[in-house]
Amino acid sequence: MSTLLPSQDYNQLRAFIAVAECLSFSLAAEQLGVSPSALSQMVRKLEDEVGMRLLHRTTRNVSLTEIGESLFQRVRPAAHELGLAVTQVRHAGERPAGTVRIHTFRSAAQKHLEPILEDFIERYPDIVLDITLDDEVVDIVAGGYDVALRIGEVIEKDMVAVRLGPELRQIAVATPDYLGRYGCPDHPRDLIDHRCIRWRWPGRATPYAWEFFEDNAWFSVTVDGPLIFSDKESALSATLKGMGIGFPVEDTVSAYIAEGKLVNILDQWSAPFPGLFLCYPQQRQMAPALRAFIDAVRAGPGR
Q1: Do domains 7-90 and 172-269 have the same CATH topology?
Q2: 116: part of which helix (H) or strand (E)?
Q3: How far apart are the first and last CA of the chain?
Q4: Which CATH superfamily is domain 172-269 in?
Q5: If you count Cβ atoms within 10 Å of the first and of the last residue's Cβ in the chain, which end, N or C, has fewer?
Q6: In CATH, what class is 95-165+274-303?
Q7: Percentage of the chain lying above the pLDDT 70 cut
Q8: For residue 216, what is the DSSP state?
Q9: Would you say the C-alpha torsion 148, 154, 158, 164 has a positive or negative sign?
Q10: pLDDT category of residue 6 using cuts at 50, 70 and 90
């Protein structure tokens, strides 16, 4: 029995992947060159065929259901590999060359950039990757960058945004020793009476207000404490030493929680938010060097 998908099924999967990556029907429609209504209809047909809802839709947000996330994680690598294969054949006679200027958050570089660098420079010896590691939110075009890796909530609306991973959560954590000395807050607003390890976005004057979720709405708490960092790793180090309550991204501290070095507190108020994305300006003709880099990041290490 042939495992090749009918063209209609492939188009529906392609539509679903685009929406899942962008978490926006309008952006995905622009990326695919179709109308948002046509794109929505293709996704609906796919949902009808599989008999399951794949996306949660509201007037403001699009998110994946649990089964949608599972399908996305399985079909996305295969679809991108097909696209990369066709691209490589199409440009078989060309050798990408030139400089690609990249602005990336440190967390994005660790997860999605560092794992591909060794293979990339071997595969494309004529491409130079000029990488700026910086958690400041800069204007990509004004800064002269070709592409950026950052969290979804700070991406400009006119950018093409490609999702690189699942949603993220920030969680309040502290050492058992700290909680033994100062007690555990019962609600996020109780944090104002605690020593918190604060973090400031680079380039901004005031520390970040910690964000939580309650009654279907986000709210922020302006915490206080003896330390303010512009580097998240330094803030985590201070938290691990028991100097106060920290607010890191969950997957950066899951091992410490499992080992008992940190305790996850206020978990019920910690909701997911859009994770890491690769973003770049919309363009009709893309330089082969930039195309090679984008394809490599989307495919991941070893592809």
Answers
A1: no
A2: helix 114-123
A3: 27
A4: Periplasmic binding protein-like II (3.40.190.10)
A5: N
A6: alpha beta
A7: 93
A8: T
A9: positive
A10: low
